[in-house]
């Protein structure tokens, strides 16, 4: 029987492998068809040099590929461009743009090894190697037939979506009958590693001639990567040069800007052609990377463009159930059209202009270089805020805020001091949230929720609350509200992992690891200085960096604190009886005890205890802890036994006195920390995000107020501060009432719970408040 996949990727090169990694994070069933056998990298991973743009670095960091490089990338901090025989030049310095670098140079072979290392970590990926693509068959029951062969013979694989990432001479493209527009630049490009008298200092040198460009790119191993274009009819002679003659030719082409060139590694040669597919999709098939467009390497846009293809497709596959649906393919074509058109026009047009020997063009090129240099200086002098919003803090609330604001068309950057650890299904995070219905809808709109639900989100259908002092139970039941569930129990680590995975495709500019050191602001915007020397300008800054927020402090936003002198003890426990998909909460004199279902017989506990009692309970051996926990829960689920380590965190109320200071606003834990008894902490933070997205969306524009105006931000602040304060003091009042052992209160509160439970409209009102609907 033929093997079936959601997605079958043909081609394990740069783009195909990157897509496989991105889709594995989404939980998709993916097959990867590779021509190279195990232990051997594809031919594309040779000694050529790849220049990665900042967005590409961010995306590959989120995919955890950059961390696998064995050699540090070479940062391009300065760019020097000139043309032989013309006057004028362009010099750009990243520091003038408050950036640490314009891009980074990575050796293709090192990058291939990093991709291979990540591919080996993917538990769901099915790799077919070595395997040859032969052709396409019919579509049957929503699956495309793909004919392949290896040493054992021919076979057929089935896929909802076939991805052609098999390079310039794409077999998938040919099988679909898609024609191409081809342009031959009549040039051959030589690449090699060279060593110079002067070590690279972060400058990329590029010089144009009539026969093509020559460049020296700073690598991370104290060598340069060289790119040397020659006329096609000269290629054979250049390849035949010995190393001395080869270095002399390079020296003449690039000049002495990097000092004397001393030695060279092996040379490789590639014909320069442009191949553009006339269509990007066929029935249940899509083309990516060089299979869709092979462009001139001038501007180093080839892989950057291909990776954007892959990330766009991955983003669409997050929310589309049928991987190869017509709707998905139409969306892909629409999303990629403008980026593809502009990038192809830029690289091809620049190549034609700079290599054209026509005498009349020489003064125009020279004046163009001078004008470009002056324009770059003028743009630095007149530069205004490049970003709309910079968000400090990449936790659940901060990352969701970045996605939400990018979703309404704002230019967003995210600053985080430490990259989150990869979520691992075998190591559940002790920190879990009772996710409310409105926040599920928010993450649905952002395209993230399906990847969370596929991984591990346990629905709870009921919530049962009772008082240890007696009285009737208060029961919330999804059936009574006409819903499938009341909410979901989700791990913090999983939420953060999936939110971060979505950042690159959303266009969020990521600064990690980095911390804010200083803040300046005026009526036009903010300027942040980071600890790595970078500076970021934006119209607004969002403090989402937690209860001890640095940005909140720099903005002068004060907080009021109240210590409950309690700690929340957390762990996973297994129960003798099924938990019935119910979130349980028992009020005890020492504080509430909650059990949140994460599997049929496993729950996450949050046990609120006074500080000294929490310390005592944490010190108990497992058997003693199990006995005390079972007794505290009145054995409602039979015996409870630890299934994980224990931990505890201090409980307090902390509320910002105001949410906005100038052009800085605080949300999430930076604005409010509340008692966890109702599991509302992260829900309140995400409601901050949803409200901010609403007020900054184009559709919310009122009476001519600009999208990022202080008036709109203040409206958001008034709305959210009022709601959050009501919630914080309500939770505190409930905790005090039910943690009090005074006789008259004990008698009253048990009856009160029973009365609420017997009045359906009141039960529904309580639940709607908690669920945000």
TrEMBL record:
GO terms for biological process: ubiquinone biosynthetic process. This is FAD-binding domain-containing protein. Residues 5-346, 387-701 form the FAD-binding domain. Keywords: FAD, Flavoprotein, Membrane, Monooxygenase, Oxidoreductase, Transmembrane, Transmembrane helix. The chain crosses the membrane at residues 6-23. One of its GO terms (molecular function) is FAD binding. Belongs to the UbiH/COQ6 family. It comes from Knufia peltigerae. Its cofactor is FAD. Gene3D superfamilies: FAD/NAD(P)-binding domain. InterPro entries: FAD-bd, FAD/NAD-bd_sf, Ubi_Hdrlase_CS, UbiH/COQ6, UbiH/COQ6_monooxygenase. It comes from the Eukaryota.
């Amino acid at each position: 029987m033929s093997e079936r996949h959601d997605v079958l990727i043909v081609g394990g090169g740069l783009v195909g492998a990157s897509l496989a990694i991105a889709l594995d994070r989404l939980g998709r069933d993916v097959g990867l068809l590779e021509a190279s056998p195990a232990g051997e990298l594809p031919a594309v991973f040779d000694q050529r040099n790849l220049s990665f743009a900042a967005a590409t670095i961010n995306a590959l960091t989120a995919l955890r590929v950059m961390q696998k490089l064995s050699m540090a990338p070479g940062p391009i901090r300065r760019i020097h461009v000139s043309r032989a025989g013309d006057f004028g030049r362009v010099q750009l310095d990243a520091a003038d743009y408050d950036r640490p670098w314009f891009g980074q140079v990575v050796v293709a072979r090192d990058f291939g090894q990093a991709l291979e290392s990540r591919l080996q970590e993917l538990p769901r990926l099915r790799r077919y190697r070595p395997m040859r693509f032969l052709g396409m068959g019919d579509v049957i029951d929503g699956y495309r037939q793909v004919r392949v062969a290896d040493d054992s013979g021919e076979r057929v694989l089935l896929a909802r979506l076939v991805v052609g990432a098999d390079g310039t001479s794409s077999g998938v493209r040919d099988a679909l009958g898609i024609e191409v527009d081809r342009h031959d630049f009549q040039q051959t490009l030589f690449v090699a590693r060279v060593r110079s008298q002067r070590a690279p200092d972060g400058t990329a040198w590029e010089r144009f001639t009539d026969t093509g460009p020559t460049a020296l790119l700073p690598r991370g191993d104290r060598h340069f990567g060289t790119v040397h274009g020659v006329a096609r009819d000269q290629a054979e002679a250049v390849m035949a040069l010995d190393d001395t003659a080869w270095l002399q030719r390079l020296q003449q082409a690039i000049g002495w800007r990097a000092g004397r060139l001393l030695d060279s590694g092996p040379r490789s040669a590639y014909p320069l052609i442009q191949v553009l597919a006339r269509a990007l999709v066929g029935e249940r098939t899509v083309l990516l990377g060089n299979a869709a467009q092979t462009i001139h390497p001038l501007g180093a846009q080839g892989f950057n463009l291909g990776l954007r293809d892959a990330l766009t497709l991955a983003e669409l596959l997050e929310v589309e159930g049928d991987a190869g649906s017509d709707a998905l393919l139409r969306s892909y074509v629409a999303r990629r059209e403008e980026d593809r058109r502009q990038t192809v026009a830029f690289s091809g047009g620049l190549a034609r202009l700079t290599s054209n020997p026509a005498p009349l063009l020489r003064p125009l090129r020279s004046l163009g270089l001078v004008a470009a240099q002056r324009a770059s200086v003028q743009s630095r002098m007149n530069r205004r805020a490049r970003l709309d919003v910079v968000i400090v803090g990449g936790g659940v609330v901060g990352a969701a805020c970045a996605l939400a604001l990018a979703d309404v068309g704002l230019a967003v950057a995210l600053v985080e001091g430490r990259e989150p650890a990869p979520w691992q299904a075998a190591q559940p995070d002790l920190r879990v949230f009772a996710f409310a219905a409105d926040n599920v809808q928010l993450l649905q709109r952002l395209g993230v929720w399906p990847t969370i639900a596929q991984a591990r989100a346990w629905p709870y259908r009921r919530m049962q609350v009772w008082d240890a002092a007696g009285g009737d139970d208060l029961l919330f039941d999804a059936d009574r509200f006409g819903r499938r569930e009341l909410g979901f129990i989700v791990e913090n680590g999983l939420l953060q992992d999936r939110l971060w995975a979505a950042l690159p495709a959303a266009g969020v500019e990521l600064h990690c690891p980095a911390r804010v050191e200083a803040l300046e602001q005026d009526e036009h915007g903010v300027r942040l200085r980071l600890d790595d020397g970078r500076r970021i300008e934006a119209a607004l800054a969002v403090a989402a960096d937690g209860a001890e927020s640095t940005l909140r402090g720099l903005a002068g936003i004060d907080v009021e604190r109240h210590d409950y002198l309690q700690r929340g003890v957390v762990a996973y426990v297994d129960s003798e009886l099924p938990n019935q998909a119910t979130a349980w909460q028992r009020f005890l004199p020492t504080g509430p005890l909650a059990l949140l279902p994460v599997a049929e017989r496993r729950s996450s506990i949050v046990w609120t205890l006074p500080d000294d009692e929490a310390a005592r309970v944490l010190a108990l051996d497992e058997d003693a802890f199990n006995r005390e926990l079972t007794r505290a829960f009145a054995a409602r689920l039979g015996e409870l036994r630890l299934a994980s380590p224990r931990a505890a965190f201090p409980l307090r109320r902390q509320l910002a006195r105001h949410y906005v200071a100038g052009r800085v606003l605080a949300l999430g834990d930076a604005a409010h920390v509340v008692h966890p008894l109702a599991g509302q902490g992260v829900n309140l933070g995400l409601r901050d995000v949803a409200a901010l997205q609403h007020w900054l969306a184009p559709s919310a524009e009122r009476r001519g107020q600009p999208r990022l105006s202080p008036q709109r931000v203040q409206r958001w602040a008034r709305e959210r501060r009022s709601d959050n304060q009501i919630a914080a003091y309500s939770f505190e009042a409930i905790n005090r009432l039910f943690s009090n052992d005074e006789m008259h209160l004990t008698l009253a509160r048990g009856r009160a719970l029973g009365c609420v439970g017997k009045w359906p409209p009141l039960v529904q009102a309580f639940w709607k408040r908690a669920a945000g609907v």
